[in-house]
């Protein structure tokens, strides 16, 4: 776990925690792209969605279910929100510890850049 998210999981650098359970940690993005911008990461280090296998299906579902929970905790469940998982270079992934973005608090444009 050599990424910045590994350091957050080990408590070596701080985060603004939104939610935590046995398998995931959710915290505010340090450079928010919307009034609400939360990252959900698995405690297990998987580099990205492309590295996930069928053995991770329950975890992937749990991450998605956590997004719904985070949206409610942040008060954007009624107004709406977007979940994004960037994967690989063309997907715009910059931290290679799998994470789901939860964005909301303003109308979001489409298509993404
Ligand atoms: P991605 O480009 O999809 O890999 O997303 C990585 C995200 O991690 C970006 O939105 C960054 O702003 C965010 N990020 C990087 N370092 C930190 C940190 N120390 N705490 C919170 N978010 C971070």
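-> sequence recovered:
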């Amino acid at each position: 776990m050599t990424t910045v998210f590994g350091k957050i999981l080990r408590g070596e650098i701080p985060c603004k925690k939104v939610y935590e359970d046995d398998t995931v940690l959710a915290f505010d993005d340090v450079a928010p792209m919307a009034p609400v911008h939360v990252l959900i990461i698995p405690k297990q280090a998987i580099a990205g969605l492309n590295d996930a296998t069928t053995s991770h299906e329950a975890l992937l579902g749990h991450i998605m279910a956590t997004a719904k929970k985070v949206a409610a905790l942040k008060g954007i469940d009624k107004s709406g929100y977007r979940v994004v998982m960037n994967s690989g270079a063309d997907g715009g992934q910059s931290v290679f510890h799998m994470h789901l973005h939860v964005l909301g608090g303003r109308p979001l444009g489409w298509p993404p850049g």
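The longest strand covers residues 36-42.
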